[in-house]
Every structure is written in structure tokens, then in C-alpha cells.
Amino acid sequence: MHSRVTISVSIVTYHPDLILLNKVLDSLGSSLEMAKESGIIGEHEIFLVDNGRDFETDPTIMTPINKKYLNVKFLTGHGNVGYGLGNNLAFESSTGDYFVVLNPDVILEPKTMTSALSFMSTNNDCGLLAPAAFDHQGGKLSICKRYPSVIDLAVRGFLPRRLRKLFASRLAKYEMQDLLNQESIFWNPDLVSGCFMLFRREVFSLLQGFSPKYFMYFEDFDISIRTRKISAIAYVPSVKIDHYGGNASRKGLKHILMFCISAYRFFVTHGWQWI
Fold first, then answer.
1. 3.90.25.10, 1.25.40.10, 3.80.10.10, 3.90.550.10: CATH of 5-147+180-248
2. Which neighbouring-strand residues pair with 72?
3. Rounded-to-integer distance, Cα 117 and Cα 98, Å
4. To which H or E segment does residue 266 belong?
5. Measured in whole angstroms, how far is the alpha carbon of residue 174 from the centre of its chain?
């Protein structure tokens, strides 16, 4: 790499688990520091986007974070604008050559950022990188997906685990298990998860960020489709994260409703596929 790049990281929070958030920041700080020591990055900045007004109503929460972590910037006072628009607010304030969208429940490995930025530095046609993801027990998670049908989403999102087994082969195809592995880079999957997205700044800017159509859910699917129209997407399994998130059905009726509304908007925009 001819010069050190800069990187901006956006974490949108809504009533976060502060213990987990500190673990996330610890892992992020360690990963960024390793990348800096390797010479691959110069400056970095981290944005905590306060959608739940937690930091606004209790500023004392910010004090230990500010003392412990350098280059953290708090964005507060805007209310709950949704996940996608929260990240857009961070981007508008950011300056990095790369823009990372990171869930507040994602733990990075020490080498995550070094591996990701090394790949981006040698693959200039890649505008969006997706990592390999694991749950807290080490199980493989499905970051990449094929374009969904309504049935795929209903089965995966709402059926009890014991009934989902009846659709195992269908779900395996949707989750691209026939094409993805732990060794090989895969180019241009249909869709990638929004729990960790590393964009080139110019790509995210051309996209004008996440669509305002989606308050929560499907903003990542939508931006994946739009990204593929202007740049390449790469799934890079050497870049690893641990994701502690859950699905919408386990979060109650409100989340199920938001999921269904966003799914409807997604299919209206990009085309219905029922079966």
C-alpha cells in the first residue's frame, strides 16, 4: 500500500447492553490497533450513534467510554431514526477512506481489520466486503444469501426450529451453503448481512447510503443489490467476526411487524418471488 488509509466505524445503538458494547469496543480497538501497527491504516474514528437517547439522557455513560477509548465521537439528539439512517448520519460526519457499518453486538478478532483492509488494498474493484461470521458458541452464521422468496423468509424467520428442519435443504440453498466455505473468497453474492459491512467511501457515497425506506430490517439487502450495480462485493472468510444477534421473531410482536413492513417494501422495490 502506497499510503496509510483512514477508516471510520459506525455503531448505531438503541438501549444497548453496556457490558457487551464495551466488549465490542475493546475488540474493535484491538483490531484497529493491530492494523495501525502493521502500517495498513493511519487514523481512525469511531461513531456511536445514539438512536435510543441513552447517552443524551444519561451523559455519565459517555465518560468511561471517552476515558477508555480514543477517537470515539457521540452522535445524539436526533431520536430513533432507524438503523440505516443512523449509519447515514455517521457517514455524513466521517472522513475515512473506508466506512464500516458495525452492529453493537459484533466482536472482532484482532486480525479482522488487518485482513479486511489488506484484501481491499489489493482488490480495487471491491466496493463492499463481507466477513465470515460465527455465533457465541462458534457456530457458522450465514452472512451471504441468495435473493429470497416469501416462503424462505417466513420459514427462516418465524417457524419453530423443529419445523424448520423440514425445510433444511431449501434454507441451505437460500444461505448459499452449496457455494461458501471457510477457505475461498466468493465474489458477488446476491445479498450480505448488515452486521459488518466494509465500504469504500466513494461507493457508499455514490449509493447515498442506506435507503430511507427501511426503518429496520432489509436495509442491508437493499444496499447489497444497489452496490452490485456499481461495484463488486466480496465475501472474505479470512475476515472473521462473532455476532451475538438474534432474529426478529425472538424480539416480540413489534419487531415482527417491522420485519414484515420492510419485507413488503423490499419486494415492491426489487421484485416479488413467492416460492
1. 3.90.550.10
2. 46
3. 9
4. helix 253-270
5. 19
Amino acid at 75: L
- Taking the C-alpha atoms of 122, 125, 129 and 130 in order, what is their torsion angle to the nearest 10 degrees? -110
Handedness of CA 96, 14, 50, 86 (dihedral sign): positive
Give the C-alpha distances (Å, rounded to integers) separating 250 from 19, 52, 235: 21, 20, 27
pTM: 0.94
Return the pLDDT at 246. Answer: 61
Under a CB-based contact definition with an 8 Å cutoff, are residues 44 and 96 in contact?
yes
User: Residue 273 CB: number of other CB atoms within 10 A?
Assistant: 14
Alpha helix ranges (H) inside 79-149? 83-93, 112-122
At 169-188, the pLDDT tens digits run 999 999 999 999 888 999 99
Q: How many CB atoms lie within 10 A of CB 238?
A: 16
